[in-house]
Amino acid sequence: MQPDEKTGxxxxxxxxxxxxHAILDAAAQILATHGWDEITVNEILAAAGIxxxxxxxxxxxxxxxxxxxxxxxxxAATAAATAxxxxxxxxxxxxxxxxxxxxxxxxxxxxxxxxxxxxLAQRAGNGALFLELARETERRTLPALKEILSEGLKSxxxxxxxxxxxADLILRISRTRWLRFIELQDAARAGDRAAALADLHRRRRAxxxxxxxxxDFPSGSIQLPPESAFERILR
Amino acid sequence: MQPDEKTGxxxxxxxxxxxxHAILDAAAQILATHGWDEITVNEILAAAGIxxxxxxxxxxxxxxxxxxxxxxxxxAATAAATAxxxxxxxxxxxxxxxxxxxxxxxxxxxxxxxxxxxxLAQRAGNGALFLELARETERRTLPALKEILSEGLKSxxxxxxxxxxxADLILRISRTRWLRFIELQDAARAGDRAAALADLHRRRRAxxxxxxxxxDFPSGSIQLPPESAFERILR
DNA sequence: TGCGCTACATACCGTCAGTCGGTATGTAAT
DNA sequence: ATTACATACCGACTGACGGTATGTAGCGCA
Lengths: 235, 235
Known about the structure:
The structure is a homodimer. By secondary structure, chain A is mainly alpha-helical. The first copy, chain A, has two domains: 3-58, Arc Repressor Mutant, subunit A (Orthogonal Bundle); 62-234, Tetracycline Repressor, domain 2 (Orthogonal Bundle). Chain A is 70% helix and 0% strand. Chain A contains eleven helices and no strands. Chain A has helices spanning 3-7, 16-31, 41-48, 52-58, 62-77, 92-109, 111-122, 127-154, 163-189, 193-214, 227-231. Chain A is globular, with a radius of gyration of 22 Å. The N and C termini of chain A lie far apart (59 Å). The A-B interface holds A 127-128, 130-131, 160-162, 164-166, 168-169, 172-173, 176, 180, 202-203, 205-207, 209-210, 213-214, 216 and B 127-128, 130-131, 160-162, 164-166, 168-169, 172-173, 176, 180, 202-203, 205-207, 209-210, 213-214, 216. Chain B binds a DNA duplex through residues 1-4, 7, 9, 11-16, 19, 40-42, 50-58, 60-62.
């Protein structure tokens, strides 16, 4: 007996990773318009064109697919952390500056992706996603930053009481950055373009200032991408 | 006919606010040992000694009672924000210093409560609670901080590019503080008391340093509570 | 050609937040 | 005291949803 024939549901067999990608694609697409809390697995099933059994063959739970989505978003929103390796011979200040500037440059180059993900994580019903994504990106970025800071501290390049706290604050700056950028983008689209542009440049100066002050560097030690690189954010 | 008699369930009528308090107490007590996600309203019902109908007469949803709990926790964990009013005549540096020192002092005076709430918010299954509590405390503390900063900026007491970002970083410090304190408390209880004590004092110095550097104050401008006030945390 | 593994499908289950009709207990006017 | 109304409260029921049990189709492989 063939229950598939009587319901009309064909059995499309795919490679496991392809199917998982397809399911993730479907989930991500629904997530673009609905909060995770209000999304049911049945909706994901329908969008992905698969049955419940098929779904639970690839993902052990709803939380499981959320975790997979988080990894995907983390890949799309954080630099591959190759910065700062080659220039280990240079001075500490240059190394940190290269790291900060490099990761920021990467983000600006992928502004569209980053902004859409941050917007996503910020929406109602996506609290769990937000928290997991924050944890994951922290796991990916904090160690390298701490390593640079503690090495600089060890080499006597500067004075800092607490590497962990400083690293956390620097990370906090790069987190809130995109929330601010989104605000400014919305403001610019609402007509206040000139003010938004000024605020954008102000934010850039503020970050540079904060970095330099937190590390007690002389003004101008940290080089950030030029203003023109930021302006792309406002269309 | 009295259906209550046949089930033995008496009908205890209470004033609305009393009942709500009782239900909140019950929920808070369960929350001390279980994550919010795994708590069912039926469990709260049983602990509070009330029926489902009675519960939903006072709270419109499970999220509703969570919101009420968040308000309760926020009351218990944030200073009443009376600091910084009377001393508006004094200089800006003193005013900010008084605010920072005052709120920190309040927290240290209520360390037990604060730590238990932070621990609670950090546990698995309490993600929604954590986020809501963070939002609520931010709503309560950020405005005053921004007000002080922007006034100081206007009066020319110092140079800062972005009040909002600076305020956010200062708030971030006071957030991560208690996570660090919990780590140190655990370390001390695990036997590493001397090291924990040293780290505790280091954290104090690090905060002072960060405040002063972020605002470009000379070292020693910001006064924090004495070391002895911190030591209470480790028993 | 049959055997086994894996990718599926369907029917079903348990749980749980929330609802609904109705009941007891005040409280205030007549 | 009786009526009238408001509010606190009850418990059975429901609908939805995440997850499972059990069986079936396709593909590789000997």
